[in-house]
Amino acid sequence: MVRKGATPSAPGQLGFIGGSMGDISVIVRGRDTDENRDACWSTVHGAGRVMSRTQAAGKMNWKTRRRLGGEISEERMREAVRAYGVELRGAGTDESPFVYRQLQQVLDAHAGTIEVLHRLRPIGVCMAGADEHDPYKD
């Protein structure tokens, strides 16, 4: 089976589900349940966005090197990540913790497909900065 935006979760199968830079990530094991079978032995692959990249960060004009709009400030993002105890290097507001759901809420909604074995907490995040052009970014 080809999965896009899903984690394989056959009974006993181990998987990883990532949260945002200011949230937990988890190691999971697939459950042998009707709910999991009905989901084709698949579960979530992350928390899911609640805000688009452009809505969060605004639109960059690469000719003028100026960003217009954007609901999340870099200061707000950096303060939230620092308060969570994470060392942040680079990163744009389009990947801020504010643009993702809380992973625990998503895991709770899909508890019938997976068992959480381990909760992982980030200590550092390294990403290309907002002012760096990445042709592979959405």
TrEMBL record:
It catalyses: a 3'-end 3'-phospho-ribonucleotide-RNA + a 5'-end dephospho-ribonucleoside-RNA + GTP = a ribonucleotidyl-ribonucleotide-RNA + GMP + diphosphate. The active site is at 45 (gmp-histidine intermediate). It is an enzyme of class 6 (ligase). GO terms for molecular function: DNA ligase activity; GTP binding; manganese ion binding; RNA ligase (GTP) activity. GO terms for biological process: DNA repair; RNA processing; RNA repair. It comes from the Bacteria. Keywords: GTP-binding, Ligase, Manganese, Metal-binding, Nucleotide-binding, RNA repair. This is 3'-phosphate/5'-hydroxy nucleic acid ligase. Its EC number is 6.5.1.8. Its cofactor is Mn(2+). PANTHER family: RNA-SPLICING LIGASE RTCB (PTHR43749). GMP binds at residues 18-21, 25, 45-48.
